[in-house]
Amino acid sequence: MNTTEFLTISSLIVPDRVAMIFEDKRITYEQLQDRVNRLANVLADMGVGEGDRVAMLQVNCNEQIEACFAAAKLDAVYVPLNFRARADEITYMLNDSGPKVLLLGERYIDMIKECADQLESVEHFIVLEGTSDEWPSYDALIESASAEERYPTGDDDDLTMLMFTAGTTGSPKGVMLTHDSFSSYILSNVTPADPDVEDRNILTVPLYHVAGIQAVMAGIYGGRTLIIQRQFEAKEWMELVERERANRAMMVPTMLKVLMDHPEFHQHDLSSLEVVTYGAAPMPVEVIKRAIKELPGTYFINAFGQTETAATITMLPPEDHILEGTEEEIEIKLKRLSSIGKPLDDIEVKIIDEDGKFVSDGEVGEIAARGSRLMKGYWRQESATAETIRDGWLFTGDLGYMDEDGYIFLAGRAKDFIKRGGEMISPEEVEQVLHSHPAIDEAAIIGVPDDDWGERVRAVVVLKKGESAAEDEIMEFCRQRLASYKKPESVVFCDELPRNPLGKVLKRVLRENYDSPVVAEG
Fold it and tell me: Looking at the predicted structure, is the pLDDT value of residue 282 above 80?
């Protein structure tokens, strides 16, 4: 199914329902369809057609969603850019994707003007939420444009979106996603709009990230009201949930932790929340256990995927978050909380070793997926595509193992796995133990080069405010809970861990900052 049909269907079923709430704006589904048609005509007048790219540089806003669907109506390709990126990174992504039109927020005008002479393809600039002496404003163009409906003619497997990877190592890569990349998941896992069911979904995850776009597609097809937050801020988030009675939310683990740590957390009525989906980064067991306790009556879902898979490929469902039953049943559920659940029915997920063979239950290998929703490949990077997609399987770069019940447990990124004296050590396993220490707020495990052992295990730890813990105490804490070779052999303390905008710890930065040799014991 073409993604534009998600909006068309909902605008016919629930035309008067509010589709988006963004600050002082309330836009119904009928109005959203009208605005999308007008923007599509604006872009068409600028020469945008089949295969042309339309780029967006702005924080979360209603215009992001309108541009996504408008581009699709023209069989063009939408390119959402990381609004936190540096000028040189933005320049690279624009020149790599080659958009004909760039829509940008007012705050980015000066930056784009400084690098405009380096941009090779952009012919038109449109300014959002502001004005420019040189470039037209979005609102003025929309108001004067034709509302005539435009119909795409492309196939389901045609390219509709280029989403850039985080680029934590090397230059960001453009991931090519088709209409089917999104619709295969949505049609299998989301109930279409229903006049009698009104869900309200608070949208905080950045819309340049696949988790944000997936939430948009699911919300529009489901006829939900999207409550859009520019960028995550805990107090505002709680106020929005309370005021708008949001019953669905997509969170990353750090957002959930920041919320619960906020001094006003218990002063807001969050009882409307029925479903909280989390993902995009590993969830510490202690954090989700606390969330289950702090938000009674809320169902939690762990959704695992990545940009290259376009959407969720494994899920830990609500029933696995309900810590009830016998002591044995609760113990099993507590273990499963550290998993990413089971593969969804419409996609294959396997664990594969370095020789390309499926491994047995309990054995660590790389998580690989196969199905229609996967990316077509990396934009203009054939060798990188061939390295990632092999024999129809997309290799995620995440290591993990599957237990006898089909639950998958992460073991870390392939490049982050530690090899100590021939033994393979999963950073994830050690980090989960560290997160259970009462004095530790957050922690990360890295491998430090060592002449004798190849690598040795180092913990980088952030202590809770007002707490103290010694290096020897932390190492002993781990020794009692892990095989001896897995325990940290040194501990360094810092004020905070470096993270990307979605909360993933930047192990590369930690290795650069804390790569001094481990002093031999004794």
Answer: no
Structure tokens given for 421: 């004296």
Residue 502 has what pLDDT? Answer: 67
- pTM metric for this prediction: 0.85
Query: Which CATH number is 4-231 given?
Result: 3.40.50.12780
Q: How far apart are CA 33 and CA 100, in angstroms?
A: 23
Domain spans, the chain? 4-231, 347-413, 421-513
Per DSSP, helices labelled H in 361-515 are 382-388, 427-435, 471-479, 507-513
Q: CATH number for the 421-513 domain, one of 1.10.150.130, 3.40.120.10, 3.30.300.30, 3.40.30.10?
A: 3.30.300.30
Specify which residues 18 forms β-bridges with. 28
Largest CA distance in the chain: 78
Which CATH number is 347-413 given? Answer: 2.30.38.10
Closest residue by Cα to residue 370 from 346, 386, 354, 353:
346
Q: Which segments within 46-191 are labelled E, that is strand?
A: 53-57, 77-80, 101-105, 124-128, 159-164, 174-178
pLDDT band, very low/low/confident/very high, at 248 (cuts 50, 70, 90): very high
Most confident of 288-292, 428-432, 499-503: 288-292
- Here the tokens at position 465 are 């405010």
d(CA 35, CA 18): 14
Angle (CA) 29-32-35 rounded to 5° is 155
Tokens of 324: 């009830």
Percentage helix, strand, coil for the chain under 3-state DSSP, each rounded to 5: 35, 25, 40
